[in-house]
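Task: sequence design from structure.
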């Protein structure tokens, strides 16, 4: 006759062991996926996509050249010497657009980007990198409130877990009058065939590209956060695949 107590104990032990093994396997797969994603972005995606975005980024980021820092020490150094925070910095493709003398902080959830970023940042001696923070943009606890003059995000908000939490964090760390500069791909208008195509392909993009949502409504989300001013425009970039051709470019002021 089977001892019921022994059976129950054995059942729970096996269940716990299976749970631990599955958890470990999931962590291992996540690590492998993050490594591969960082390598792919550095070796292929950054170069091919960036050439289509240069003109738009140059115009957007040029606004930082005339900004004066809220920091009393940096303010004396004149225009452009500001503290900039970039979320989802990746390999650092945006470094070439930043003003001479600016102080730079980056927040990146994928730790395997740090090596690529540091190697790339050596080419841009005109920027002083203050911090590389490995964290989710939904919780930037290491960044003090009212501490940065500008926050930048490019092709990042499509992949965050909770966009409203990210936007509230961005607003929190910005100084009074600080600027949030964003350039993000978004979904097409609802009830169009292009939006339908995005919805069909979205699960694959989410799996392959770190939670990328093709139907992201960033343009709408930014206006809900409570910035004092939001200036943005929606454009289609013809050189890109139609699935991520539509972008919103904007500046939101705290």
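Answer:
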């Amino acid at each position: 006759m089977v001892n019921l107590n022994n059976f129950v104990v054995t059942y729970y032990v096996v269940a716990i062991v299976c749970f631990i093994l599955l958890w470990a396997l999931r962590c291992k797969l996540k690590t492998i996926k993050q490594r591969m994603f960082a390598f792919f972005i550095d070796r292929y995606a950054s170069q091919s996509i960036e050439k289509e975005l240069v003109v738009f980024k140059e115009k957007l980021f040029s606004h930082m050249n005339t900004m004066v820092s809220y920091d009393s020490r940096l303010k004396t150094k004149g225009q452009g010497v500001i503290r900039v925070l970039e979320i989802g910095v990746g390999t650092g493709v945006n470094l070439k657009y930043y003003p001479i003398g600016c102080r730079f902080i980056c927040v990146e959830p994928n730790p395997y980007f740090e090596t690529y970023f540091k190697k790339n940042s050596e080419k841009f001696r005109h920027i002083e990198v203050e911090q590389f923070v490995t964290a989710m943009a939904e919780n930037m606890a290491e960044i003090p409130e009212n501490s940065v003059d500008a926050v930048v995000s490019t092709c990042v908000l499509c992949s965050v877990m909770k966009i409203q939490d990210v936007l509230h964090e961005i607003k929190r760390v910005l100084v009074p009058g600080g600027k949030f500069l964003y350039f993000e791909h978004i979904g097409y208008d609802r009830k169009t065939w292009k939006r339908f195509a995005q919805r069909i392909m979205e699960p694959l993009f989410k799996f392959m590209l770190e939670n990328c949502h093709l139907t992201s409504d960033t343009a709408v989300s930014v206006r809900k956060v409570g910035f004092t001013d939001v200036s943005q425009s929606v454009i289609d970039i013809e050189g890109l695949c139609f699935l991520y051709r539509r972008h919103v470019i904007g500046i939101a002021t705290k």
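Helices lie at 4-61, 72-75, 114-121, 163-173, 193-208, 218-223.
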